[in-house]
Amino acid sequence: MGIDQRHRHYLLTLVGLFLLVWAVLAIEPSNRHDWLLENLLVVGLAAALLSGHKYYLPSRSAATLIFLYLCIHQLGAHYTYAKVPYDDWWRALTGNSLDQQMGWERNQFDRLAHFSYGLLLAYPIREVLIRLGLRPGLWSLILPVDIVLSTSAIYELVEWAGAEMLGGGLGRTFLATQDDRWDPQKDMALAAGGAVIAMVVTAFAARARRSKHGSG
Hints:
The chain is mainly alpha-helical. It contains 9 helices and no strands. It has helices at 3-25, 32-51, 60-79, 86-94, 98-102, 109-131, 138-166, 168-175, 183-215.
C-alpha cells in the first residue's frame, strides 16, 4: 500500500470512528433540540472538509486533532455543555470530587471545550494556511491564534443571537453561561490561550526538526 493510500486509509478510519462516536452519542441526548443546534457545527465542518478534499487533505496530526475536538464537542452536545457529568465519572474513578478538589462551583466542561477549540484546531488552521500559500514562519504562528480568537468571538455572537431567538429554557441551555456574566470573555480567552500553547509547541517542534536535519 502506497503512502498516499495509507494516509487516506488513516483518514477514513478516523471518519469511521467519529461516525461511531456520533451514533452512540446521538442516542437519547439530554436535550434533542440543543443536540441538533450543536451539531450544526459538525455539519459545517464536515461540509467544508468534503468540499475541499480535492485540494486539501489534513495530515495525520491535523486529522487526529480535529477528531479529538469533535469527540469533545459531541460529548457536550449529548449531555448539554452545562451538565456533562465529568465530576461523577471522576468520583467513581477516584472516590473524590474533582470540583471540590479544584474549588469549582460550576460545571467546567464548557471551559474545557473552548480551551480545546484553540489547543486542538490551531494547528489544522495553520496547516490550511500553509497549503494556501502562507510561508512557514512567524505569521504562520500568529494568524491561527488570530483566527481562533476571531471565530470564537463570532461564535459567542451567534450563540447570543440564537439564545435570544429561541428564548426560554432552550435558549438558556444553548447559551450555557451558568449565570456567569463574564462567560463569553472567559471562553474566548481560553480558546486563545489554547491556540497560543499549540503554536508555541508547533514552533519548538519545527525548530527541533530543523536542528535535527541540520546536524544530520
